[in-house]
Write a structure and sequence with these properties.
The chain has one domain: 3-Layer(aba) Sandwich (Rossmann fold), CATH 3.40.50.2300. The protein contains five helices and five strands; from the N terminus they run βαβαβαβαβα. The chain has helices spanning 11-23, 34-43, 60-70, 85-93, 106-118, and strands at residues 3-7, 27-31, 48-52, 75-80, 98-101. A five-stranded parallel beta sheet has the order 2-1-3-4-5, sandwiched between helices. α4 (85-93) links the parallel β4 and β5 (98-101). α2 (34-43) runs parallel beside α3 (60-70).
């Protein structure tokens, strides 16, 4: 299955996503600190990054850009509790593969992750 990282400034949110995706057989590493997630991506292959847009020190789209510099093949799913058309457009411009609204339903999360991972 896939190697996935989740990055959210709310630890419980990252942990819940991790639990859901581990049950589907994925290897998931959860982070609340941007630097830790980026370092992990530098040291390990990441198939998918699930990023909150509002983080502690950096904007989620800035983390997305860094991850794409490390490995352009990394898929990215952006999560936000504050959706708007501008952030959605910006996420896609920065290379996001999917943009979802929090809280995200378990079934929707599983479906979006599988869909993004199937894309070339």
């Amino acid at each position: 299955m896939a190697n996935i990282i989740t990055l959210d400034d709310v630890r419980d949110a990252a942990v819940i996503i991790g639990k859901i995706l581990r049950k589907k057989g994925h290897s998931v590493h959860t982070f609340t600190e941007e630097e830790d997630a980026i370092t992990h991506a530098e040291l390990h292959k990441v198939d998918l990054a699930i990023l909150d847009i509002n983080l502690k020190k950096m904007h989620g789209l800035d983390v997305l850009s860094v991850l794409k510099q490390i490995n352009p093949a990394t898929k990215v799913l952006i999560l936000t509790g504050y959706p708007d058309v501008t952030s959605s457009r910006e996420a896609m411009k920065h290379g996001a593969d999917e943009y979802c609204v929090k809280p995200i339903d378990r079934d929707v999360l599983e479906e979006k992750v599988e869909d993004v991972l199937r894309r070339p």
